[in-house]
């Protein structure tokens, strides 16, 4: 039986992942069968079982399925365990092995591509869902000084802070607290609220200091409101999530095929050709 790969999400038609993995396949000489599968959370378990039964060997998982994917795995990597979320699935016999490549993808993009030194940066993380969970452990490992987690739902911010297990460095806060938090060296938007522009409108410019870098895990249309706020507030660096998407995909590709592709060429191609605005993985 031939091997198949896919990205699962809802919605997922916008995803650049099939194009990215096709480019990686051409570059490495590996025949890649990779497609997008739109599935609602309540049907994900069955869809994944059907995928496996028909030769599914690996999959990416995007919003809103990353936390569910974690529960469907028989075993997970340490970084997926710390995140409590899975974005990469590897078929291992009759079971799924789970990994999370979001965090390493983000850090690699920010440090290697954009030249940012993350060490000792006081950091604000907006959101506490699967995307935020995926990147938080890697940011801590990269040497940020403190991590403030802000979410519309207080309980989710508390839960993520507790899961990270570093109460001296990680602090849950709420939207009402934003004006009292002072300046941050790094602000990461891990919410999908940017699609409506609501969250960006609520962010005070007092969060921004002289060297603040603003990063949106979204790309394309979904990133516009937050990135516009960041520029208006005077952020020193403004970065969207396209580079992270390519880097996390490369990490997934390496897990499945044993070869790490060159990401710079694919990133440059997407930047050049991405005339159609899309939303984030």
Secondary structure elements and pairings:
Elements: E1 4-9, H1 17-28, E2 34-38, H2 44-53, E3 56-61, H3 66-72, E4 75-76, H4 78-83, E5 88-92, E6 95-99, H5 102-113, E7 122-126, H6 130-141, E8 146-151, H7 154-164, E9 170-174, E10 184-189, H8 198-202, E11 208-216, H9 224-232, E12 237-239, H10 242-257, H11 263-273
Parallel strand pairs: 1-2, 1-3, 4-6, 7-8, 7-10, 8-9, 10-11, 11-12
Antiparallel strand pairs: 3-5, 5-6
Helix pairs in contact: 1-10, 5-6, 5-10, 10-11
Give structural notes.
The structure is a single chain. The protein is of the alpha/beta class. The protein has two domains: 4-100 and 245-273, Rossmann fold (3-Layer(aba) Sandwich), CATH 3.40.50; 103-240, NAD(P)-binding Rossmann-like Domain (Rossmann fold). 40% of the residues lie in helices and 22% in strands. The protein has eleven helices and twelve strands. The strands form two sheets. It has a six-stranded mixed beta sheet, with helices on both faces. A six-stranded parallel beta sheet has the order 9-8-7-10-11-12, sandwiched between helices. Helix 7 links the parallel strand 8 (146-151) and strand 9. Helix 5 (102-113) packs across helix 6 (130-141) and helix 5 packs across helix 10. The longest helix is centred in the last third of the chain and has 16 residues, at 242-257. The chain is globular. Residues 275-280 have low confidence and may be disordered.
Q: How does the helix and strand content classify structurally?
A: alpha/beta
The CATH superfamily of the largest domain turns out to be: NAD(P)-binding Rossmann-like Domain
Q: What percentage of amino acids are in beta strands?
A: 15-25%
CATH topology call of the largest domain: Rossmann fold
CATH architecture of the largest domain: 3-Layer(aba) Sandwich
Annotation, overall tally of beta strands: 12
Shape: globular
For the residues shown, what is the average pLDDT? 93
Number of helices: 11
Helix content: 25-40%
Helix and strand succession? EHEHEHEHEEHEHEHEEHEHEHH
For this structure, what is the CATH class of the largest domain? Alpha Beta
How are the strands ordered across the major sheet?
A: 2-1-3-5-6-4
Radius of gyration: 18 Å
Low-confidence stretches: 275-280
Main sheet characteristics? 6 strands, mixed
């Amino acid at each position: 039986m031939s091997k198949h790969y896919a990205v699962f999400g809802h919605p997922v038609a916008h995803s650049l992942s099939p194009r990215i993995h096709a480019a990686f396949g051409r570059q490495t000489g590996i025949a890649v069968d990779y497609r997008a599968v739109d599935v609602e959370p309540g049907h994900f378990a069955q869809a994944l079982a059907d995928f496996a039964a028909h030769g599914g060997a690996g999959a990416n998982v995007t919003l809103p399925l990353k936390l569910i994917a974690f529960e469907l795995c028989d075993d997970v990597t340490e970084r997926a365990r710390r995140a409590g979320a899975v974005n990469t699935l590897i078929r291992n016999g009759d079971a799924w092995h789970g990994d999370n490549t979001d965090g390493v993808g983000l850090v690699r993009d920010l440090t290697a591509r954009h030249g940012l030194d993350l060490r000792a940066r006081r950091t604000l993380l907006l959101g506490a869902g699967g995307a935020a969970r995926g990147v938080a452990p890697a940011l801590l490992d990269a040497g940020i000084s403190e991590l403030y987690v802000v979410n519309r739902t207080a309980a989710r911010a508390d839960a993520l802070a507790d899961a990270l297990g570093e109460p001296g460095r990680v602090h849950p806060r709420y939207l009402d607290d934003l004006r009292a938090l002072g300046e941050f060296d790094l602000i990461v938007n891990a919410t999908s609220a940017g699609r409506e522009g609501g969250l960006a409108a609520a962010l005070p410019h007092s969060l921004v200091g002289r060297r603040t870098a603003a990063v949106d895990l979204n790309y394309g249309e979904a990133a516009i409101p937050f990135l516009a706020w960041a520029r208006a507030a005077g952020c020193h660096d403004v970065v969207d999530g396209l580079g992270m998407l390519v880097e996390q995909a490369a990490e997934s590709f390496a897990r499945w095929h044993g070869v790490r592709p060159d990401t710079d060429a694919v990133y440059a191609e997407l930047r050049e050709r991405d005339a159609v605005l899309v939303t984030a993985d």
